[in-house]
Amino acid sequence: MNRTEFIALTAVILFVAFVLGWFAHWLIHRFVRVKGSEMGELDKLAQQLHEAEEQRDQAVAYYQQREQDLTNTLHQTEAELSAAMDGLRDARTEAEELRSQLEKSGQSS
């Protein structure tokens, strides 16, 4: 094989490789290509996904606000209960002191 034949053979091999690559590229894009109707459906699905994410974000914000409100109400109720218990304890102590005074005055008479 001389130099001219080698160059010609190399050129043919490179050309065949180029044609096979181009054909494979065309074939892949032929099967993978997205049709217009499918693009419309994909756009619709993307819009629905966006709307669902917005609704989820709104729901999360609502429940966080609701949880904060309930926590505040719980703390307020616990504070009121504590104050009521302190008042009841003081009233019982005072009632016990008054009983003691009445018993002492009843015994003195």
Short summary of the structure?
Helix content is 94%, strand content 0%. It contains two helices and no strands.
What would you say this structure looks like, in words?
It contains two helices and no strands. The N and C termini lie far apart (145 Å). It has a domain at 51-109. It is mainly alpha-helical. Keywords: Coiled coil, Membrane, Transmembrane, Transmembrane helix. The chain crosses the membrane at residues 6-28.
Number of strands: 0
Describe the oligomeric state of these chains in a short phrase: single chain
Q: Major sheet, described briefly?
A: none
Kindly name the structural category. Answer: mainly alpha
Low-pLDDT runs: none
Shape: rod-shaped
Q: Output mean pLDDT.
A: 92
Cα distance spanning the termini? 145 Å
- Percent strand equals under 5%
- How many whole angstroms does the radius of gyration measure? 44 Å
Helix content range of the residues, please? over 70%
Query: What's the helix-strand series?
Result: HH
Q: What's the helix count?
A: 2
Transmembrane segments: 6-28
Keywords: Coiled coil, Membrane, Transmembrane, Transmembrane helix
Coiled coil: 35-108
